[in-house]
Amino acid sequence: MKITSFFLVLICAVNYSFAQIKVQKIDTEKGKHFITTVIGYPTNGTYLYDGITEPIIELKADGTGIFQLKDLTKNNIEWGIECSPVGAPLFEEGFNSAAYTFWYKNQSEEENWVSAQFSIHFDKKKMYLLGERCKEYSEEIE
């Protein structure tokens, strides 16, 4: 009886934790992909060029955001990090870093998803988007 109760609690806990991850299927010129905004690190926030206040990329936890071009034009975007169909982020592990595929599209356009590089540099505690815009992060649980 104790073993059955343990497994029932374990199954409920696993289902609850995976239920928190929203996975979206997208169609791109490169085929079908899955994206999520949850990868185990605080991806949402403002990404800046080093020492410059604008242009920015602002990522919100709900998968929306703002992509500001070099001419300071702001576009509303939808975004996500490529993942498996069950929400596990897909990445390439480097020495003290991880590289992900970042997908985004303008909200005003139909289905024109664009891929870009997103990387986390663990020793520097920085995340880079498009290789040039970055934000610092901490691993503290909020």
Structural overview:
It is a single chain. With 142 residues, this protein is mainly beta. Helices cover 13% and strands 46% of the residues. It has one helix and eleven strands. It has one helix at residues 2-19; strands at 24-28, 31-36, 45-49, 56-59, 64-68, 74-83, 91-94, 97-106, 114-121, 126-129, 133-136. Strands 3-4-5-6-8-9-10-11 form an eight-stranded antiparallel β-barrel. It is globular and about 35 Å long. The N and C termini lie far apart (37 Å). Residues 1-18 have low confidence and may be disordered.
Return the string of H and E elements: HEEEEEEEEEEE
What is the average per-residue confidence, as pLDDT, rounded to a whole number? 85
Query: Helical proportion?
Result: 10-25%
Uncertain stretches of 5 or more adjacent residues = 1-18
Describe the global form. Answer: globular
Major sheet: arrangement of strands: 3-4-5-6-8-9-10-11
Please identify the structural class as seen in this structure: mainly beta
Main beta-sheet strand count, sense and barrel state: 8 strands, antiparallel, barrel
How would you sum up this structure in a few lines?
Helices cover 13% and strands 46% of the residues.
Topology:
Layout: H1 2-19, E1 24-28, E2 31-36, E3 45-49, E4 56-59, E5 64-68, E6 74-83, E7 91-94, E8 97-106, E9 114-121, E10 126-129, E11 133-136
Antiparallel strand pairs: 1-2, 2-6, 3-4, 3-11, 4-5, 5-6, 6-8, 7-8, 8-9, 9-10, 10-11
Overview features:
single chain, 142 residues, mainly beta, 8-stranded antiparallel β-barrel, 11 strands, 46% strand, globular
